Amino acid sequence: MTVPVQTSVQTSPARPSPAAPPRFAVAVVGAGAAGLAAALALARDGVETALVGRHAPVADGRTVALLDGSVRFLTALGAWSEIAPHASPLAELQIVDDTGSLFRPPPARFSAAEIGLDAFGWNVESARLVETLRSQARTTPGLTLFEADSAGMRLADGAAVLDLEDGRALSAQLVVGADGGRSPLRAASGLRTREWSYPQAALTTLLAHDRPHRDISTEFHTRNGPFTLVPLPGGHRSSLVWVTAERAAKRLSGLDDADLAAAVEHQARSMLGAMRIDGPRGLVPMRGLSVERPVADRLALIGEAAHVFPPIGAQGLNLGLRDAAALRDAVFSAREANRDPGAPASLAGFGRTRGVDARLRGAAVDMLNRSLLTSLLPVDALRGLGLVALSAIPPLRRMVMREGVQPRLGAPSLMR
């Protein structure tokens, strides 16, 4: 009798399929102020949001003047109550023509009270603003933090996939590029950009001074650019943004504290008395950048990823916060209509209004700066007449002040 031999067949265990990356409605790339504000605004509305980016230290010594609309936005996010004690109101703005022009107008003064506000805005150290927003992001429901840099974005299966430098990945219906002026997401998107530069640099630092600033921000218009003193809390501290010729800015940045303080006091005509340097210094290149339109396939750009301004007129970050608030409105509208937030129809209005706003603000800053750099008499005359008209015609002055701090064009709901 033959006994059948049983043979056993050994099979290799099945390899587990790679886990699908976590999915989100929106992924914000960039952990600066604009990116943080956008992520917080979306999560606050119940949008499943990822925030991608290392929480690197913020350079000390830089401040930002948050205009009224930005303060409203931060209040809606629940962040302003922590920032306010460390901010100084900008109740008045004084412009002094120091160009030496034949058409030099008298100093012009603008008061926030004239348009029913306590202040045009509030000046706060950038590090304080960002750290407050980061602290809030760590405890906000519906907001997942990936504290790693993005390694790139690709499209797959009707979504965007973000690969991170630490090997992780995630997918989202919409990616928000808030990754700065050298934005890798913008570069990879193929969006057309325009870049320019000026023969200037901006020296920044913090100052202590003998006389009180009385919540007045003073801007001297010089032939090399604006020299601006902005109040800080305490009454006897201010931040400095001194825009001047590039070579002169480098020379000033190399002075010791005593010599630099003397140079600042001289340029300020001793308006605030004796000065001393009260913080670190920065040297900011004067350059500009704009994109033709801030949207691409499943991508929306905000902040300096979409526009870079020189530090004149407090426009840069305030425009970035308007981007963030407007993006929240676009995503909210898409959800209300049961639309994909990353679809072209969902982003069309955002791209149109944000592009127009950025171009208008950029043109105003560029025109002011270039008008100071030329000594052509017609240009000097027009600039001088403009300041005289603003001083002499109250309705015109109030209209310009309102537009400066509360722009009506496409104003996002959280800034109204």
UniProtKB/TrEMBL annotation:
PANTHER family (UniProt xref): UBIQUINONE BIOSYNTHESIS MONOOXYGENASE COQ6, MITOCHONDRIAL
Family, per entry: Belongs to the UbiH/COQ6 family.
UniProt keywords, alphabetically: FAD, Flavoprotein, Monooxygenase, Oxidoreductase, Ubiquinone
Pathway: Cofactor biosynthesis; ubiquinone biosynthesis
The protein's required cofactors: FAD
Gene3D superfamilies reported in the protein's UniProt record: FAD/NAD(P)-binding domain
Protein name, entry field: Ubiquinone hydroxylase UbiL
Record carries keyword Oxidoreductase: yes
Domain FAD-binding: 25-327
Comp. bias (Polar residues): 1-12
InterPro entries for the chain: FAD-bd, FAD/NAD-bd_sf, UbiH/COQ6, UbiH/COQ6_monooxygenase
Region described as Disordered: 1-20
NCBIfam families for the chain: PRK07494.1, Ubi-OHases
Keyword Flavoprotein: yes
Organism expressing this protein natively: Methylorubrum aminovorans
Source organism, top-level taxon: Bacteria
